[in-house]
Amino acid sequence: MTAVPVPRQPSQPSDRTSGGTSPDMTPVFALKELVARLHREQHKIQDLLSSLSFALRSFNNLNQFLELIPLMASRVTDADGGALVLFKPNGQMRLERLHCQDSRQCHDIRKALETATRQLAAAAATPGGAIAPAKMTAALDHQVSHYLGPDVHLFGTAILVKNAERGRLYVFSRAVDYAWTETRQKLVRLVADQTAVAIENDELTVELRKKERLDRELEIGAEIQLQLLPRQCPKIRGAELAARCQTANRVGGDYYDFIPIPHARLRSVKTGSGEAGRWSVSIGDVMGKGVPAGLIMTMLRGMLRAEVLNGHSPARILQHLNQVMYADLENSNRFVTLFYSEYDPQTQMLSYSNAAHNPPLLWQASTDSIKRLDTLGMLIGLDADTHYQDGQIQLQPGDTLIYYTDGFTDAANRSGDRFDEDNLTRAFHWACGHCESPQEILEHLFAQVQQFIGAGNRNGDDMTLIVMQINSPD
């Protein structure tokens, strides 16, 4: 958008008053003319500033708004022209906009301003030539004044965005009797302040658009992750399940899965062990949160599901998984804890192996006691040569088992105290004696953690819980 300057109107001769007396010789009339002229100047300045404010509210393009700045600054101060110099983040500077009332002088003035900014930028770019911001501004003012010459009345002011100088606004006049009064200086500063607002608004708009794109990407990531987690618990003969994953962010690093084991039927035919219908129940936690943890969780899910198809023991599955994922996790500086188990509905035997995950808690109905299920094993991705151990336990009707992530035990209240495993064990023990279903136990444990951290507060870590209750086989 190019603004065409309106030429100044020549003063018109005043009418003569009756009686042949020249009105401009009358002091009272001269005073009235002076007051009227001041009012006209005031209204002109108000109109120009109002137009600039309207442009600030209306323009969506920063470049269009910046085109107005030198023009408006020179108009409100009755100067010959103005120039806008902006500083780049890398320390360079450039002449952004220039306005001159006399187009014949524009070429010389542009050349002088570009020479000043170019020489100063070149000096700052040389090794050891870095200049402090305050000295940079003083040097720029000196260079601009030098190249414009002594006959130009020059005034420059800073364009400050968040207390950082982002440029300079210069206004100049070649009129011999021109003076930079305090009022004119204030008007230039006012235009510079509106320029700073426009620059900041543009940067905020850019940041908002980036945030909106990131939010959309996170929403897509959360949708994908939600689809990868089990939509519902499977129906396993002689067992009842309930599960929930509550992420701290939209994309979390917790993982749980129920995987049918198709090769179990082949093994049962060969060994006669009656393993048909076995199910894998696993839970894991990627160190960290957000999109990186979610990506690793997705990779873990795919690799584990592929490894389960091989029909190995739980310890061998974790060992193979660790060897495959080690190279990727080593470069990411992230690790995974994982508890993997296989449940046989016919024998009600649970086989398991642990890779440094929080050990599941088993409430044994016959003794009204709680036992931790654990085996030795390091984090997945920490050491490629790690060996894992197998464990087994015979479950009985009425037994209840919970798999959980450290979001439960690490949940902290306002005092900094953590919920820890002791509180979880007590809450679980109470729930086993008072709740009638795995879903009720799950709801009770989540409620206990929320009550501990405080109503309205949100846990800073993902929380995942699986409740498995053993019933009499049909």
Describe this structure in words.
With 474 residues, this protein is of the alpha+beta class. A hairpin with a 5-residue loop joins strand 1 and strand 2. The longest helix has 47 residues. The protein is elongated and about 115 Å long. The N terminus is likely disordered.
Structural classification: alpha+beta
Q: Report strand %.
A: 15-25%
Helix-residue proportion: 40-55%
Number of helical stretches of at least 4 residues: 11
Series of H and E elements: HHEEHHEEHEEHEHHEEEEEEHHHE
Main sheet strand line-up: 5-14-13-10-11
Sheet bearing the most strands, described?
5 strands, antiparallel
Secondary structure tally: strands: 14
- Overall mean pLDDT stands at 82
Q: What is the overall silhouette?
A: elongated
Q: Supply Rg.
A: 38 Å
Unreliable residue stretches = 1-21, 264-276
Distance between the termini: 82 Å
